[in-house]
Amino acid sequence: MTVTADMVKRLREQTGAGMMDCKKALSESNGDFDKAVEVLRKKGLAAAEKKAGRKASEGLISSYIHMDKIGVLIEVNCETDFVARTDDFRQFVKDVAMHIAAANPRYLSREKIPQDVIEREKGIYREQTKDRPEHVVEKIVEGKLEKFYSENCLLDQIFVKDPEQKKKIKDIVTEMVSKVGENIVIRRFTRYQLGEETED
Fold first, then answer.
1. Are residues 94 and 159 in the same domain?
2. Phi, psi of 27, rounded to the nearest 5 degrees
3. Residues 189 and 100 sit within 8 Å (Cβ to Cβ)
């Protein structure tokens, strides 16, 4: 299968990977576009995992206001001021802030959920399925907990701007890491909604 310049261009546009990487991925997958995307994602993931341990103390704090009714303040870190100033990085931060405004996550990640909240959720799910066999109950509780994570944790949510509704926020972070070649960490965020109840 001959890899054409058009195929490479299309793959680059979709994945943001380098030209040579796209060419190699298409060769490896015999011109199968979907397989080539998979090859690039696996390589990107491996590269991202290597970078994940590196210190990220630069970055930026950004805000997003939606129709004067919802406001988001977010801090996203990277390794260098050079990357923090790029249009790609700024756009990425803005996209994540916009996602937070739309999807209203309660937590950054599943690791940030207080244990008592998880136990309370498990208790509710067990109560809902108490008439079923124990091994079935545990599977259902697990499934419902995964759903809870995907609805309430930013990194587990499906990115609102993904046209196919498949990529999670953690996937777009990984893609960004591959693209800029630095570790990227969504550090914290706050979302305000006009007229919402506050705890104080």
1. yes
2. -65, -45
3. yes
